[in-house]
Design brief:
By secondary structure, the chain is an alpha/beta fold. It has helices at 22-25, 49-52, 64-69, 94-106, 120-125, 140-144, 197-211, 225-233, 244-253, 281-297, 299-306, and strands at residues 40-44, 71-76, 79-80, 84-87, 90-92, 109-114, 131-132, 157-172, 189-193, 218-222, 239-243, 260-277, 318-319. The protein is 30% helix and 24% strand. Strands 1, 2, 6, 7, 8, 9, 10, 11, 12 and 13 form a ten-stranded mixed β-sheet that branches. A three-stranded antiparallel β-sheet has the order 3-4-5.
Amino acid sequence: MTARSTRCTTAKTRTSRLAAVAAIAVAGSMLLTACGDQTESGGSTKETGSAAASKAPLFSKLPADIQKSGVIKVGTDATYAPMEFKKGSEIVGVDPDIAAALAKQLGVTFQFESGTFDTLLTSLTTGRTNVVMSSMTDTKAREQGLDDKGNKTGAGVDFVDYFSASTGILVKKGNPENIKSLDDLCGKKLAVQRGTTYEQAAKDQAAKCEKDGKPKLTFESYPTDAEAQTRVKAGGAVADLNDSPVAAYIAQTAGGGNDFEAIANKTDAGLFGIAVDKKNTQLRDALAAALDAAIKDGSYKAALDKWNAGDGAVTASKINGGS
């Protein structure tokens, strides 16, 4: 289970699928209020296509337009440390570092642009970006272009799966409600980020509580995970649902490690994927080949280890491996 639906609302709305740096995020993060496919440029991999093309082993696998431009434009929501967040004007984190490893194989620049999570797939379908890499859970609904009610809303996307994460339950330091699992949330109030798979997870858990005859679970959804964190810190909600590496990072950093604790629900691991337009199978397959090469040469592992995210490593690329 992981975080981050893709419909846009006039107000700003991660399987799965947090502010720039979690410790700062709780105090109040910069909100990107754009809708549609508006994004904010913030970072790119260091390797340039023109300089690296001749030596990159997988450059020839890329589509001709990307070979020519030397750039893969990446949509992301850079408010999700340690996966992707802003350090000054630069977008850093697990995903940009994995992208840097892929760039060495492909010989092009991965140019990250930040926008609100629930508009990222729109930026892909309109052609503003070539891929989405934003801790996005690979789900069959996203693959098929279905909304949360199962209605067809688009053509869907293909995913190149590159990371595995489970649900993290973020609670106040000391865990005053003694939360150990999702079932312990029955009768409690949650805070979650809007448009993520955790908003759906909250709905599913509420239905389970009712089915099991337990007290009612309620939740509120917020445009950013930073706002959900603030709600938990203020006592307005018992917990925030998040991806396990993100919840762990927040617990380690927010308030100097004094604000939160993270409980991992390791039984529901799901896959993050790089989203690619279904018509662009050549780019999809080039990314999969680059990921396999980065796994083989160790640069993928190094990118994860830098952020203490090695538990989420996959052993090979997979296309549309989500559930």
